Amino acid sequence: MTLLSFLLLIILFLAFFIYFSGLNPQDITIFFFPNHSFTYSVAIVVVGCVLLGLVLGYAAHLFGAIGYLMKNWRRERAEKKSREVAAIYRDGVGRLLSGDIKKAHSLLQKALDRDPSKIDTYIAMANVYLQEGEPQEGLNLLLKAKSIEPESLEVLFKLAATYEELKRDEDALETYQAILSRESNNRKAMRSLRDLHIQHDRWREALDLQKKILKASTGSKRLDEEKQRLLSLRYEVAHADLAQGDVDQAKSEFKDIIKAAPDFVPARVSLGDAYCAQNRSEEAVQVWQEGYRKLGKSVFLSRLEKFYMEAEDPATLLSFFRNALMDRGDDLMLRLFFGKLYLRLEMVDEALEQLHAVESAGVESPQLHLLLAEAQRRRDRIDESIQEYKKALGVNNNLRLGYTCEVCGAESDEWVSRCPRCGTWGSCSLSGRQLIRSAPSTDLREIHHGERAEWSRA
User: Fold this and answer.
1) Distance in Å from the first CA to the final CA of the chain
2) Is residue 196 part of a domain?
3) Is 426 left (phi over 0), alpha (psi -120 to 50) or beta?
4) What confidence tens digit (pLDDT) does each residue in 230-288 have?
């Protein structure tokens, strides 16, 4: 407002006051208390009230304006602090990802000190502690983050993973259950909880969860994988029933699994075991024979061999092998087990015939050479037996002892600077080195002159 406008406003106000006073020349008395009052003209009272209202209104406006300015100042200050903390946090996370753990620790701790309410910083700092080998410190930070935001799924998942790393599986289980209480169809939580149950052989609980996972995975790319996992868990529950003596229930479940997945080997093997538990040996034999005919897995031949040898009825087993070879003469696995059976029965020539047939097909396996070595030994062909034992053990004229990775257990004939499986440098050592180094030392004594000659005469 310009000065001229202000003066014009004052002139108009004075003119209005004079005009209003002329129309209202009378006085008015106002009492504040019984004995206290004041008397003024009506015009003065009205004008005074107007001016008082203007002053109060302006004061209210001024107070609101100051409050608005303070609010903006605090907001801008908080935003500036938030930007600074975010920049420190990003820098710390970048250092963490680049492997500079010490610098990441410093930056993230600074961010945490400046803003103790930022959940992402707690999670990143927990990762730092985990990489520094201090999982308990990381766990403490995650528990604090949980107290700040109890509903944060990110915090709960990280907390559960940390519990698992600390081998506190029951706490991890409770945390996954807490997630599911918030999101009942959270597949990640259900899978993690299922895997925990599997680790502790709680097959029924794992199966119940797997059914929910399968229901929630409709249309998912992992649907076939989840269906296969469901069959596996159904088998484990049935196998537990069999171990507990509930044979009929287990047998019924094995049959349903075979019907749903004819190539599921464990169900066929255990179905035969269930029949054996009921002394129904013919049905057991039929299941195993059919399993081998359809799937060609050696476990069925092992089951048949064990059953007939324990029943002291090798003749029936020999008859089975002969008949099977008439239909499947090119089945080398069948011949290998047939040769093994002959060897157990001391029918060495027949065993060598079957084993040589396998060898002539170009098969090179330690099991085959071991059987051939034993057959040659029983024929007193020591040189041939030694050669086969060498092949079975992988021994050559250089007498290489072999090397093993101390990290992942990968084996190699020659020493390598870096393990080809796990990528660790300098982990390749002589196989069995720890056993040799940890063996108790014995007292060694000096061989005296002439003692060696006495040994040779002895």
Assistant:
1) 131
2) yes
3) left
4) 999 999 999 999 999 999 999 999 999 999 999 999 999 999 999 999 999 999 999 99
**Same domain (yes/no): 80, 98:** yes
Most confident of 1-15, 17-31, 269-283: 269-283
- 157 and 188 in contact (C-beta within 8 Å)? yes
In a domain, 297, yes or no: no
DSSP 426: T
Same domain, 194 and 144: yes
Strand order in 428-430's β-sheet?
Answer: 411-412, 403-405, 428-430
* Other C-beta atoms lying within 10 Å of the C-beta of residue 137: 15
In-domain check, residue 423:
no
Query: How many domains does one find in the chain?
Result: 2
Query: Which residues are 404's β-sheet partners?
Result: 411, 429
The packing angle between helices 169-182 and 187-199, to 10°, is 150
pLDDT tens by residue, 327-354: 888 889 999 999 999 999 999 999 999 9
Rounded Cα gap, residues 257 and 215, in angstroms: 19
Write down which residue in 94, 110, 126 finishes a domain: 110
Domain that holds residue 38: 21-110
Pairing of strands 411-412, 428-430: unpaired
- Token code pair at residue 197: 């149950």
Measured between alpha carbons, how far is 413 from 391 in angstroms, rounded to an integer?
A: 14
Instruction: Give the three-class secondary structure for 132.
Output: coil
* DSSP-derived 3-state class of residue 412: strand
* Residue 418, beta-bridge partner list: 425
| CATH code for the domain in which residue 187 is found | 1.25.40.10
Both tokens of 154, joined, read 């990110």
265-277 and 223-243 helices cross at what angle (nearest 10)? 20
pLDDT digits (tens, 9 = 90+) for 179-226: 999 998 899 999 999 999 999 999 999 999 999 999 888 877 888 889
Q: Is residue 413 part of a domain?
A: no
Q: Is 388 helix (H, G, I), strand (E, B) or coil?
A: helix
